[in-house]
Amino acid sequence: MDNKTELDTCTSTDETDEYRFGYTHEEIERLKYQHQVWAKENQRFISRAGFNTGATLVDLGCGPGYTTLDLAEIVGPGGKVIAVDRDGERSLPLLRAQAEAAGLLNIETMAARLESFDLQEESVDGVYGRWVLMYLPEATVKPLIDRIAKWLRPGGVCALTELCNYRHIHIHPKNKYLPEIAGALIRAVTGERGCNPEIGNNLPGLLFSAGLEVEINVIIKAVRATTQEWLWPDALFRNHLPSLVEEGFLAQSVFDDFLAEWEARSKEPDTIFFSSPMMEVIGRRS
Ligand SMILES: C[S@@+](CC[C@H](N)C(=O)[O-])C[C@H]1O[C@@H](n2cnc3c(N)ncnc32)[C@H](O)[C@@H]1O
Fold it and tell me: Among positive and negative, which fits the CA dihedral 120, 72, 279, 190?
C-alpha cells in the first residue's frame, strides 16, 4: 500500500452525508481536548487490547490522528498504522504533519468511507476505533464489523469505544434543560442517515456474531468546572449546539436558557459534568 494513498477523495457536497460536526478549526481543537481528557482511559484500553511491537494496526475514523500517533509509537518502526478517515482534506494532512514532526514514518493515511472500506483477509493484527461508528448509518455497521473480523490474522484484536447511553449525560447540580439538549444531540446524530449515537450497546453482540471472543467494560468521565478539563464539555456545547438550533433540532429559547445556566455554573468549582457511559469492547480472534 502506497504511503499517503487517497483511496477516495470524499469531497461529497451532500450535506446529509457529512461528518455531523464538520471540520472547523474549533472542532479539530475540541477533538484534541477530548483526546487529552480521555487519555488515561484510552491508554488503559489500548494496553488491555495488547497491541504489540511490529504489529500492523488500523485506526478507523482516525480524525486528526491523536490516537494514531500513540499507536504508531507502540508498534514501532517495524510495524505500521493504517489511519483511515473520510476527511482527506483537513484531518489527514494534520495527522501527516504531526507524524512528520514526531519523526514517525510508520503511518499510512487513507481517505475512505468506512461504509465501503475493505482490506485483504488476514492482513492486520489489530483494529482500533473510537467515536466513529456512531456517525455511520446503523445498517452499515454490522457488515463493517464482519469485514473487520476477516481482516484480522489469527490472534488479532479489535478494540472499539463508542457511546452507549447519550441520555445519561448529566450535570451536578442538575440543569433542567440538559435532557432536551441530550435529546436534540441524539436526533441530530441520528439524522437522515439513520446513524445510532448509542451504537456502543450493539457492538458486543456484533463482534460475537462475527466470531470473536468478546470482553466489555463501561466507563464514565466526570470533569469539574474551573479546571482545564472543563474545556472539553464547554467546547462540546458551544461548538455543536448553535448548528442544532439552526437546523431545528433545538429551540433557540432552550439553548439560550441552557447556555446562561451553563455559563453561571462554569464559574462554580462544585459543578460536575458526567459524560455518557462509553462501551469499551475488545474482540479477539482465536
Ligand atoms: C468524533 S471524531 C473521532 C476522531 C478520533 N477517532 C478520536 O477518537 O479522536 C469522528 C471522526 O470520524 C470520521 N468519520 C465520520 N464518518 C465517517 C465515515 N463514514 N467514514 C470514515 N470516517 C468517518 C470523521 O471524519 C471524524 O474524523
Answer: negative
